Each structure stands twice: as C-alpha cells, then as structure tokens.
Amino acid sequence: VDDGDTMWVTQSHYTNGISIVPYIICDAAREVTLKSGVNYEFSVMMKSDFSGNDKPSSILYYVNLATNDTTYLDRCNTFERDYWFRRTAVFTVPSDGDYSVGVIMDNSQSNHYCYIDNYSLRVLSCETPDKLEIKNVTAHSVDCEITDNASQWEVKICEEKPYIGIEDFKYVVSDTIASINFTISGLQANTTYYCMVRSLCSDTCSYWTIAQEFTTYCDDMQVPYETSFEVGEENYCWRSSNSSNGIYGFVTSESFFGEKSLMVQDKIMIMPAMDVVSLDVMTLSGYVYAENTDSAVFSVGVMSNPYDITTYEEITTITVANSIS
Length: 325
Description:
4-stranded antiparallel beta sheet; about 40% strand; elongated
C-alpha cells in the first residue's frame, strides 16, 4: 500500500497497511496482466486482534476479467492473535490476459480489527517448503523434517518468534542443510525456540516457512531428588504425554505438604530424567489424594528413553484405598 492510497491505515507490518474494521468483509485486489504456463506466487501478510473464537477468515483468489470466472486458491481461518503471518498460493492461469488477483478478509463475525499488508505477486522461481515439522526434542537438540522438492535449505533457530517477511530477525543458530531430515544441536536446556527454513535455489531463495515452536527438555536431575511442587521449584521439568485426553496441573486446592500438589486425570506424567546408572537400589515415595476411589488407580514405571513414551515399562500398579483422604 503506497502513501497517498485512499485506505484507512492504523497498523502495518512495515509502513502502511489496510485495516479491516469489525463486522465487514474486505476485498482487496489488483488488476494485472498474466501469461499462461507461468507459475505465479501470490502472498499477503495478515494479522488479527481477535479474542476467543471470533476469528476472521481469508481467501486468496483470482478472476479472469475476460470471462469473469473466479478461482479460489487458499482459505485460512487459523489466525494467531497479534501476530503477522504470510498466506501464500502458487497458481497458473489458463490463458494470457488480464486478471484481478486479490484477498477477501471476512471479518463479519468478529468485533475486532484485522489487517493485511505486503501484497506480493511474482513469478515463482524458488518455492517455499510445503511443511516443516518438529519430530523430536531433547535437552540440547531438535530433530526436524522438511517436506519439499528442493535440494538445499537454510535453517535458523530463534529465541524470539520472528515475523514472517522480515529478513533481519534475530537468531541464535544459522545453518545450510542438504537433507530433509536434520538435527540442530548445542541448544540450551529448558528453553523455548522457534525454527524456520527456506529453500535455496540457484540464484535466489524462497520465503521463510512459518516458525515452528519447541521447548527443550530439562537437564537430567541428580539423585536424591525431591519436590512438593511449590512455587519456585522446577515444576516446568515435569511433562505430560502428548495425549489429547485428560488434564493435569499444579493446584492449591489440595496438598499434603506446603501449598501445592500435582493434579492428574487420564494422563501420563513424566518426571525429570534421572542421572543414575541403575534403578535397583532406588526408592520412590510420595502421597496420593483421591476424590473418587472408582478412578484412583495409577501405574508407576520407567522410561529407558526419557524422550520416547513407547519405552515406558510398568513397575507396579497402585490403588488408593480411601477417597477424600
């Protein structure tokens, strides 16, 4: 959006942008001349101030001005609150001619503002990777996998989540890789990071992928180890299995010692990894409170690999005999 354009500007990714007020639909497009057989890349930066479930949605599209046929390229309603992110679509047109290429922002169900900026339409010469996945995390490393057809990529690890589209963001690790599966080592324990990659082509590079967040695990604990889950203790080193079921948390509603306890329902809780040679002479003790004896049964076991839940081996099953006690 250039200076002088008659658009209401309140926020922007760089200098000026388009602001969409609550309860309206915004359609912003440019008329351009395109050629058939050419791969085009269309992208727009987006942001929303939504709260709760009243998220806006966006659609990238183009219209053949000769036939008035509309082709929808991408639909999205996965906005992150107060964070600029890029939506991108790659397309070809059926014939040479004039087209309108734009974005529809549907803010009709929201009472919050949303914004678009950095409209970009270019001939595609280096495509952004389709996907970046975090496959495994340890205390000092992360394993990642890229879905892409390129042969070389640049990867960056950041401690602050960067806006997609800014090239001079701060990073703590930068590397060039030639495999879709890669490992970044030398990270700090118990630290949140953001990983991004982009394709490297012969004479240019692609856009960065959306930053993928991960947190490294804590260093191994020394034995003896004791905790009552109080404020100031290293509760963040306890983890739960990646199950969508169940709940857990550190609560003040019940406690045997101090003011807090660990509440668990239908979850596998994993204590910090222990730095020991053998468990043969180890004793585990603690106190359990059950609100309902029908469900007050739990298993205690060990994981030979503290990062792999499939290595769990049960030692014993414990039944709490009395409820509310």
